[in-house]
Amino acid sequence: MSFAGNKTFVIDPERAAESNAVVFLTVICVFWSLAFVTASVRVYTRAVVVRSFGRDDVFMVFSVLCGIGGLVSWIIECKHGYGRHMDTLSPSDFLTLLEAQFFQSVIEASFAFGFLKISIALSLLRLSRGNWYTRILWTLIAFICFYTLFSFITFLTYCQPIAGLWNPALRPKCYSRFIYRNFGLFNAACNIVTDISFATLPIPLIWSLQLQRRQRLYLIAILSGGYCAVGCGIARAMFIIAYVHEKDGTFFPWAPFFGALQLDIGIIAACAPTLRPLLGRALRLPNSLDPHRGANYYRAGKALDRLPVSGNLPHGYQRQNTASGQFVELAKGGKQWAPAHPDDSPGGSATAIHAEHVRMKAEVGGEKSNCEVDAILPPRVEDPGSKGVVKTTEVKVEK
């Protein structure tokens, strides 16, 4: 005996034995394992290696936790109906399948995708160096919040009461399949739009960085992995369209299948760029996505080597931090008078120092910007610790 909808009838035993559950569950588990490992390594890299665990990583953790809930739902669904013909399911299996589908829709299709997209947007904000770029990303974050909450509300209001979705005895009032299909299409379309946006937005920014071509191509290739998620989203949307006419949707559950793949591939593509501190040495890549680091830094020691030393002072120079508020601007090729030590009174002795390559122009993304460095001052004569050259390591270019 079998249950399909409200009908009970005898079925062919061979048909009842047919199942795709193992295939679907295996593929889902493989991709989810890759996504989980990639996300775990990302957390380790950000929290331990580079110690820059931020908001984007927090939202990625939320997305992964929701993804775990989605995986548990898939296991339950495959055990109670996915991969088998709908007309071969027992009443208890069919109702359990409907309940698992509901929780998967809420946890995975709504919140997991929402947290993932917000995480990607916050990661791209780390690269943002322009107001227009920042505004676009915050607009996308607001849009993601809107359609995520909208999807969540549509799932909650699909049937009243909610439990009536998997318990017909409650005699629920539910949307028609066409309205439910349209809500699903809207959610899929929003995910496709945001996937395309996040895969495309970083390309012009990365290409403008003063990095080696190999490094730029690597970053673009990794971030463009989001286009694979776009492909899964399009396939998911096509099967959602066919949802209302599907008579055996449990045997080939393509729509939720491609939805799960879209989430897993999205997590992998979002986490891959953050693994560069671990993989950079093997690939000969810098360890930071910050466009200032590596592209717009210079070694202050090279400038120090060209600064002449007054004959009545010990050889060497002392670094004065700009945070002290006593920054002395040293123009390229010019001369400035500066106190021999920051603590000296205005009437104290002063020494003329010639600045070479201390204040310079640098190109950041094709635009000119000032390079502000710490003032290089001669050490105090009476300071016994002033021996040799005190050399700064890197000086940041501020736009």
From TrEMBL:
Record GO cellular component, one term: membrane
Keyword Transmembrane helix: yes
Membrane-traversing stretches: 22-45, 57-76, 137-158, 178-205, 217-245, 251-275
Localisation per UniProt entry: Membrane
Keywords, ordered alphabetically: Membrane, Transmembrane, Transmembrane helix
Primary location recorded for the protein, binned into one broad class: membrane
Topology of this chain in the membrane: Multi-pass membrane protein
Pfam families from the UniProt entry: Fung_rhodopsin
Sequence segments annotated as region (Disordered): 377-399
InterPro entries given in the database record: Rhodopsin_dom_fungi, SAT4-like
The Rhodopsin domain, residue ranges: 41-280
UniProt similarity note: Belongs to the SAT4 family.
Protein name listed in UniProt: Rhodopsin domain-containing protein
Lineage start: Eukaryota, Fungi, Dikarya, Ascomycota, Pezizomycotina
